[in-house]
Design a protein that fits this description.
alpha+beta, Bactericidal permeability-increasing protein, domain 2, 36% strand, BPI fold-containing family B member 1 isoform X1, Lipid-bd_serum_glycop_N
Amino acid sequence: MAVPWTFSLLCGLLAATLAEATLSPPAVLNLGPEVIKEKLTQKLEDHNVTTILQQLPLLSAMHDNSAWGVPLLGNLVNSILKYIIWLRVTSASILQLQVQPSPYYQEMMVRIPVNMVAGLNTPLIKTIVEFHMESEAHALIRVEKSNSIPSRLVLSDCSSSDSSLRIRLLHRLSFLVNSLAKKIMNLLMPALPQLVKTELCPVIKAAFDDMFADFLRLARAVPIPLSPGGLEFEPLSLIIEENFIQLDLGAKVLDSKGRVTAKFNNSEMPLTVPALGNKAFCFAVRQDVVNAVVAALLPSEKLVIPLHYVLPDVARELKSSLEMISKQAANRLDGTQIVKIVTQDVPYLDLTPPSTTAAQQIVMDISASEKDLHPLFTVGIETKSKVQFYSEGDRLMFNFNGISSDRIQLMNSDIGIFNPELLKNVITMILTAELLPNQNSKLRTGIPVSIMKALGYETASWSSAKDTLLLTPDSNFL
């Protein structure tokens, strides 16, 4: 009897695991190899990597047998080095970094080419003997997971292989000097990889740690102001996929006092994260988070419109339309007729391409005059607008283009039952003239999103995928 029970338990655990695997984060920040190598290069410069290279102790490394591991007798080394007054790196640079996939899961490799020129001063000749040296550091980056702290990126290994080392004499001189230079190069060959590991790799690790800290600070940026309130993100987890880093982010919406009004974690709500392709980064926000932002910007409200004073042409159109329903009701309208618009629900954005739409439920009261305690009638309206997303500097801008009254339902009436679709044109005119500008005015300032400039890009574009709002750069690295 235990076998069926065990089988049921295993099936339940498998189902739970599969369900968990389909959960998607509220937002994702994908960082491609272009961002990684540019940011790491900048951090290496901040850590004065060229100065470190120019201070490499070449002579000490050549003296130290353990640095190169070739069993040469000490007197032989000394017989060569006694002809050297000084030997040092005179110029150095880091060439274009390469970020490559690793054959191992949750790991990537960064190749850091180093270009150096070393000068040798010897009493055998008055001019400086110059060597051109090329080497390459290989740094492995992997995801480190722990039960006590969130997963993080670590630089797990840094080394330099002999196969990446090239040393050549820049100028051929006398036979004696060329022979000495060849012996010096033979001593440098085993010494340089060890110098890269002991002198350069600590700088690479420090630069990488700073870069990763910057990525985390970017994810934990100060709340994005929504006026009122704000939106903030926090890292949930991260993965390495091929040669890009994916940060999964949680999201919180805050009120004007900093209190959390909505919190989003992994859920079954889908999030479409497209392949980066040749894009340097992609910031994807789930549809429910976008709608929470819209709700913060456009809370439910009531508009009271003295129609005759504000929109006299629409007031005449309303009276003309009412005459087709009830002339008696139309005659009750005077110069103080009032229209009340109540947005019962905040606009709901559907991000499904090819065009994003915003749906909303509206209640509209039409009163014959400002003194009437009860409206002539009340209608419920389901509206729809097209939504346009675009960027201005570092701000996400969006507005509603047009508004349609897709469905109108009579809720209350003091003039008898009638088909409210007969008033569709005038109702749409009122919503277009009053509700639409009112909502767009609250969206006019946009939402500051500093990700693109923090990553070094001047402009970026917003677009929608199914259930997702996307930000991708459309310019080269600054």
